[in-house]
């Protein structure tokens, strides 16, 4: 079956063709784990477990089920093989779902807004085990596993302590754009072929289609001769969808996830240090950092990003802190514990202040500091107001 998208493109047609041409000329852009259920080692406890969220009877899973479209694919023998694989490893699926908790509802919403099959929201299960910090040995990174060249072509920049491939909001929008754009440009709206190209590269898929046509064979995804990783790509995706659609039948217990985003977007109008923001507002720093994995040095600047993500239930308190006038007492500030390898210049840069100011604030006469030393960071550097 062919699925046609209806979203109006913001890219001009010529620009879209140029983009696809550049991407299709490269080697495969993304890496899918050979065993998507085999997630990286993590503690069984996640800080999201401690959030005091009130779950609604109609949760994110119900919304996802309503948008699943590829039910017929589950009868394919390859899909059944992967269903059996996942059923034999239910703990891995459960752990991946825990990592998906803060993102699932929002990604479901983005997929739904574009009129795409709900299965698209499960691609991070296959690509990264839903780990925003996942990196492959081939250089792919993030929830959607973008290679550097593909990321550059899609505007996912990496500079000044920021990697947009790790930014869940930015990378999700880019991934959905990419999937839709390839479907329209190459495959007459066929999302399944676009997903194959997402994994293997459009050049690989197009060559396989030309070979199939030359031999008189069908040229849809399920009949093509593609690399084994790509031939397993959609079976894995459909197997995960089948399990989520009826978890009890497959021996899987899904945690309840509210059908509303777990985070809010706060505009960045001045430099923000996440550690200091957490310290002054009482927000869990680990939680705040996990919501902003693209901020690789823990700071946000208007020159780099437009917004940071914060826990939805603490949005008002954080906004109030960022909008508060500068304190009149210059020596009120956050504490920083010097780590191995730190220098005054590095610490000052991370907090958006000068070395001279850091020296003066802490009564230092030189640049010598030692591991374990406690420095006070001027409060006004949390956001240069």
From TrEMBL:
It comes from the Bacteria. SMART domains: LysM (SM00257). InterPro entries: LysM, LysM_dom_sf, Lysozyme-like_dom_sf, Transglyc_AS, Transglycosylase_SLT_dom_1. Pfam families: LysM, SLT. Residues 334-377 form the LysM domain. CDD domains: LysM, MltD-like. Belongs to the transglycosylase Slt family. PANTHER family: MEMBRANE-BOUND LYTIC MUREIN TRANSGLYCOSYLASE C, SOLUBLE LYTIC MUREIN TRANSGLYCOSYLASE-RELATED. This is Transglycosylase SLT domain-containing protein. It comes from Billgrantia bachuensis.
